[in-house]
Amino acid sequence: MRTREFDFYLPSQLIAQVPIAQRDQSRLLLLHRASGHIAHRTFSNLLDYLRPQDVMVMNNSKVIPARLRGINSQSGGEFEILLLEEMAVNDWWVMLRPGKRARLNTRIILRNRSGALTDVQATVIDKNREGHRRLQFSNTKDISEILDQLGETPLPPYIRRDSTSDPALDSQRYQTIYAQRNGSIAAPTAGLHFTEQLLDQIRHLGVQVCYVTLHVGLGTFAPVKAEQLSEHVMHEEHFEISAGTAKTINTAKAAGRRIIAVGTTSLRVLETVGAKDHGKVRPAQGRTRIFIYPPWRFKIVDALLTNFHLPRSTLLMLASAFAAPGETHGRERILSAYAEAIRKGYRFFSYGDAMLIL
Q1: Pair (87, 124) in one structural domain
Q2: What is the pLDDT of residues 302-344, one digit of tens each?
Q3: Residue 241's closest CA among 193, 218, 274?
């Protein structure tokens, strides 16, 4: 399939810039795969579509304050740093802007969240083919331990902020309420709609809630530049699934009960481990570069809760595959649902509304 087949036009005013006042009051579009029928509800109505003994799987990765700012120690020029992957203590691969000014051995003096210069420095020690830089941090025991003092919430570029914006809003709302394990540089956004009260109601209904971890990185949000999907190579991302979660899922599958993935990241973990053992889930940790697009045959997941995704993104391709498992017409079904959402004024992307594919 060609990347351009997953393009669509979105009016800019439908790109959500701020979260809705109450998490579970976002809109929910329901897409029934068998019939293509669409319904429009509110996210709190999710309860109406769950069954006792369903298993709901969530990604408990936590977004770190991964955006840093600093100056060139020689010229005073400003740099913006996005942490990508930790190789060792104080040793990180990053996206760095402006990259052309970040030559090898360039030293960067970091600012704190108030904008004041600190003693912490970073030195460019390597560059890869994608233009990412490798930084060695100094004058700190572990940069990871002081990110709350230095870093900002790494909002995606389509969310605009200025000097009058309150950073506390994003540090709270660009995070799921069940986030536990530090490591993501973008939020698993399908989970942003849940409140503690709604989760309690879901459990009271008899739904089993369990967790996996996938630290969201470039593999999730890097654009597809290849003309053919088969030519795109995903970046690896770290994942973990516990023995308890694996047992819960296997027991449910054996009994014919549904597995509902909250978000594409949770689904990618489950399909990564399920693909290795013919649909049986085993506890595991490692790295995945799984790229799901039509006509993918899903082995574990029966329903998907997700947000509305960017054109030509791997997430849109995954949703298209899920809309028609093992077939190629899921793209048309998803793009038709997106067109309906646009007509109805749904809010798109990270802070936007949600879709439940059943």
Answers
A1: yes
A2: 999 999 999 999 999 999 999 999 999 999 999 999 999 999 9
A3: 274
Amino acid making up residue 90: N
Of 95, 119, 150, which residue constitutes the final position of a domain? 150
Q: Which two tokens stand for residue 317?
A: 């391709």
Tokens of 230: 């088969």
What Cα–Cα distance (Å) separates residue 6 from each residue in 55, 176, 310, 313, 347? 30, 28, 9, 8, 19
Q: Note the pLDDT of residue 221.
A: 85
**Cα gap 252→259, rounded to integer Å:** 8
Q: How far apart are CA 299 and CA 36, in angstroms?
A: 21
Q: Do 269 and 243 fall within a single domain?
A: yes
- Domains held by the chain: number: 2
Q: How many residues does the chain have?
A: 358
Distance between first and last Cα of the chain? 24
What contacts 100, CB < 8 A, 6 or more positions away?
none
Q: What is the CA radius of gyration of the chain?
A: 21
Contacts of 263 (CB under 8 A, 6+ apart): 58, 59, 188, 189, 190, 191, 305, 306, 307
Q: State residue 45's pLDDT score.
A: 98
Q: For residue 210, give Cα distances in angstroms to 87, 149, 261, 285, 306.
A: 29, 32, 10, 16, 17
The domain in which residue 292 lies consists of 3-63+172-357
Write out pLDDT tens, residues 99-129.
Answer: 888 999 999 999 999 999 999 999 999 999 9
The total of other beta-carbon atoms located within 10 Å of residue 86's CB is 17
DSSP 195: -
CA dist., res. 130 & res. 22, Å (int): 39
In three-state form (DSSP H/G/I as H, E/B as E, the rest C), the secondary structure along 276-306 is HCCCCCCCEEEEECCCCCCCCCCCCCCEEEE
Q: Which amino acid is at 152?
A: E
For 43, 74, 183, 248, the CA distances from 186, given in Å and listed in that order, are 22, 32, 9, 27
pTM: 0.95
Q: Tell me: cis bond preceding 98? Omega within 30 of 0 counts.
A: yes
Helix, strand, coil proportions of the chain in percent (round to 5)?
Answer: 30, 30, 40
